[in-house]
């Protein structure tokens, strides 16, 4: 039924051969995306979560939620793989069924055949870029927050002396400032809190100690005193207490952007972080952000590279493609990703420019695909 609707729908600018190829690509693409997604989630996420369930008794509902939040990122990885396998199988079937020979006999060249394939790949590239800039950063952040929140109930943060950190409110304004002489991951000693949450009043809380309640996510502050200070600097009132519950964020060890966190940034976030790194004259962070920025531009176009390689390999492996197409696709994917990670590492240490480290694997892939296509079209 769907095929009939597809054929009878009026496509004023799309020829019959274009619709035929798109209809042939779509089922293979969906099947390959489903297979690769299941594999990627199993290897990258599910195994680790199963270990957490066994060791830390993580709730099953939390496991499902984390898997759901990891799904957008996994899709951006598997879409290029899926299009390679879809093009390989489609080209192989055209050869095996003699349709490729029939098309050439009526004057349809290989270069004409590339147009709908590249358009399909560009559509996949656009969807990948859209996911990378919208859903992926937020979903990965929420996933990590869920995991960190769960693990904080079991593990302590490393001890530190003289910790100081701000709490931000709306419009990125400082809401509270916290200082403690000693923090062992669960208890704070010598706590001082400057509370600016009320516009006409400042609260200063001095307390002997505070203990973290992991169940309620609050601090139980002991033996303290609260000073209420007006805008003119007068102490309006004081309040002593033995114990008080206070909902404040747990201190983090650092607010600086870590190199391992860069790959989770979107293009907009990367450009913002790059501007800050330039102001701070942090050359190592600048190089890492520039490499990630160029990779963010290049990654969605991997679908186009794989589509071209799929055409070249698909039409040149005529008789063996049906049996070895999947293995060939996995080999091409593995080689391309190894090359991508290798050039990215060379960019991070300064052996390649950020632009070259991101686009060199694409150039090599397109070069290989072009040689194959030219040889097949002779």
Automatic annotation (TrEMBL):
Its main location: membrane. It is a multi-pass membrane protein. The keyword Transmembrane applies. InterPro entries: LptG/LptF_permease. The chain crosses the membrane at residues 20-47, 67-88, 109-131, 297-316, 328-352, 358-376. The keyword Transmembrane applies. PANTHER family: SLR0882 PROTEIN-RELATED, YJGP_YJGQ FAMILY PERMEASE. This is LptF/LptG family permease.
């Amino acid at each position: 039924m769907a095929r009939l609707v597809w054929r009878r729908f009026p496509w004023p600018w799309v020829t019959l051969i274009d619709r035929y190829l798109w209809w042939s690509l779509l089922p293979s693409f969906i099947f390959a995306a489903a297979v690769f997604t299941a594999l990627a989630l199993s290897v990258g996420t599910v195994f680790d979560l199963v270990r957490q369930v066994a060791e830390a008794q993580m709730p099953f509902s939390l496991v499902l939620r984390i898997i759901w939040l990891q799904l957008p990122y996994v899709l951006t990885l598997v879409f290029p793989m899926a299009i390679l396998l879809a093009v390989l199988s489609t080209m192989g079937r055209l050869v095996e069924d003699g349709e490729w020979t029939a098309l050439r006999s009526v004057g349809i060249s290989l270069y004409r055949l590339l147009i709908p394939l590249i358009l399909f790949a560009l559509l996949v590239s656009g969807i990948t870029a859209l996911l990378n800039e919208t859903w992926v950063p937020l979903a990965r952040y929420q996933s990590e927050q869920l995991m960190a929140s769960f693990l904080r109930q079991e593990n302590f943060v490393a001890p530190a002396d003289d910790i100081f950190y701000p709490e931000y409110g709306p419009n990125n304004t400082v809401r509270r400032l916290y200082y403690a002489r000693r923090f062992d991951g669960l208890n704070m000693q010598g706590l001082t809190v400057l509370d600016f949450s009320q516009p006409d009043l400042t609260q200063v809380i001095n307390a002997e100690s505070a203990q973290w309640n992991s169940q309620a996510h609050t601090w139980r502050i002991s033996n303290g005193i609260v000073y209420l200070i007006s805008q003119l600097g007068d102490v309006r009132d004081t309040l002593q207490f033995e114990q008080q519950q206070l909902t404040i964020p747990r201190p983090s060890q650092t607010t600086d952007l870590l190199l391992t966190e860069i790959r989770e940034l979107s293009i907009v976030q990367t450009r913002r972080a790059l501007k800050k790194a330039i102001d701070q004259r942090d050359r190592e962070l600048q190089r890492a952000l520039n490499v990630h920025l160029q990779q963010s531009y290049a990654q969605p176009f991997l679908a186009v590279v794989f589509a071209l390689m799929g055409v070249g390999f698909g039409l040149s492996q005529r008789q063996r493609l049906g049996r070895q197409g999947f293995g060939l696709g996995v080999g091409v994917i593995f080689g391309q990703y190894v090359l991508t990670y290798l050039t990215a590492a060379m960019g991070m240490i300064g052996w390649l420019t950020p632009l070259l480290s991101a686009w060199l694997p694409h150039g090599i892939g397109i070069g290989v695909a072009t040689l194959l296509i030219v040889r097949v079209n002779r």
